Amino acid sequence: MRICHVIGARPNFMKAAPVVRALSAYPVEQFIVHTGQHYDFNMSDVFFQQLDMPDPDVNLQVGSGSHAQQTAQIMLHFEPVVLERKPDLVVVYGDVNSTVAAALVCSKLMVRIAHVEAGLRSFDRSMPEEINRLLVDHTSDVLFTPSEDGNRNLAREGVGPERVFFVGNVMIDTLVKMMPEADRRFSSNLPARYALVTLHRPSNVDDLDWLASLLLKLEQVGHELEVIFPVHPRTRQRISNLGIIPSRNGHIRFLEPLPYLEFLGLQKHATVVVTDSGGIQEEATFLGVPCLTVRENTERPVTVTLGTNVLVGRDVTRLADELSGVLTQSKRQGGIPPLWDGHAGERIAKVIVGDRRGGV
Ligand code: UD1
């Protein structure tokens, strides 16, 4: 059996690593295609080094562009790879443009597709990722869900249950495996209490008035709590459009995007995380760190119902209130969702190779 993994953007890398590793225990042939959606060293190469992932066999080098340009370029460059290498199965991850582009190519070529992180829904179609999730799930042959809400969403949309496997969260596999190394690298010359901030969604950073009000609020927070903000390239560009030089601004400590291990260490020890990322909501839940999500909705509802996540929406007053709540109250005790146990990759590999030993 020949298996192709398609990855392209930062959050794909830590999801693919455990699946590639688990499959390597079986007599299958694997190859990795990197679309080149993310191409900076800090957004891509460093993850391969730290996650001990095999280097990509093919890099499509598509780079940035509008959604249509990026998706179309990936499709154009990926189709010949599929035709030449003839995989039996293509595994796609998450909800980025690389995921949907690869799934569309394979569905037209009648090549089987497995989707890791299937079934998540924010029910907000203004989010490009929601469109990607819908299209990928409805073109996939095998769907691996990280939480049971994913199974319910897929059932409601008419996806046959025989194709859907609740396997748990592959991102947590990587977290569990890498945490000892992240602990070793964690620098102790950080303040005892700090807020860790990440923002990159168009809904937060492309509206410059809103971005300015968020930064102003974080600057005020910075008077009582150190604010550490590794800045995504898109966000850096928008911040400089506001006339702010990210490295020199007042109470917020702006950093370059961080490698996986350094970010994980910072997250584990943070007093609170403020984010609009999907994966960070999950990691914070697993780590028991309070998480304030600057979005109106989440496709990861278990992080709110079971975990430490609170949606603060587009409301700086609510953000400030929740932040002072975190500082004054004892830590919110969240639970860990079922099957977020470090073994999702192995369960996925078993399904893919048809290994029925010990169940799925
Ligand atoms: C993409 C995903 C998003 C994910 C995020 C994680 C889609 C639709 N969005 O968003 O779901 O949460 O990745 O980071 O796929 N850029 C660089 N260097 C890079 C990559 C990007 O400078 O290595 C800049 C470019 O100016 C680019 C912009 O960042 O135009 C946005 O990159 P893009 O891949 O289009 O989307 P992300 O915002 O990263």
Q: Give the number of domains.
A: 2
Query: In terms of structural class, how would the helical and strand content be classed?
Result: alpha/beta
Q: Which CATH first-tier class of the largest domain would you pick?
A: Alpha Beta
User: How many individual β-strands?
Assistant: 13
CATH superfamily of the largest domain: Glycogen Phosphorylase B
Structural description of this entry:
With 360 residues, this protein is α/β, with parallel strands linked by helices. The chain has two domains: 2-168 and 340-353, Rossmann fold; 178-328, Rossmann fold. Helix content is 46%, strand content 15%. It contains 15 helices and 13 strands. It has helices at residues 10-23, 45-51, 67-85, 97-109, 128-139, 148-156, 170-185, 202-205, 208-221, 233-241, 260-269, 278-287, 302-305, 316-328, 344-353; strands at 2-7, 29-34, 58-59, 89-93, 112-116, 142-145, 164-166, 194-198, 226-230, 252-255, 272-275, 291-293, 309-311. The strands form two sheets. The protein has a seven-stranded parallel sheet, with helices on both faces. Helix 3 packs across helix 4, helix 7 (170-185) crosses helix 11 and helix 9 (208-221) packs parallel to helix 14. The relative contact order is 0.13.
SSE topology sketch:
Layout (H helix, E strand, L loop, with lengths): L1 E6 L2 H14 L5 E6 L10 H7 L6 E2 L7 H19 L3 E5 L3 H13 L2 E5 L11 H12 L2 E4 L2 H9 L7 E3 L3 H16 L8 E5 L3 H4 L2 H14 L4 E5 L2 H9 L10 E4 L4 H10 L2 E4 L2 H10 L3 E3 L8 H4 L3 E3 L4 H13 L15 H10 L7
Parallel strand pairs: 1-2, 1-4, 2-3, 4-5, 5-6, 6-7, 8-9, 8-11, 9-10, 11-12, 12-13
Bound molecules: uridine-diphosphate-N-acetylglucosamine.
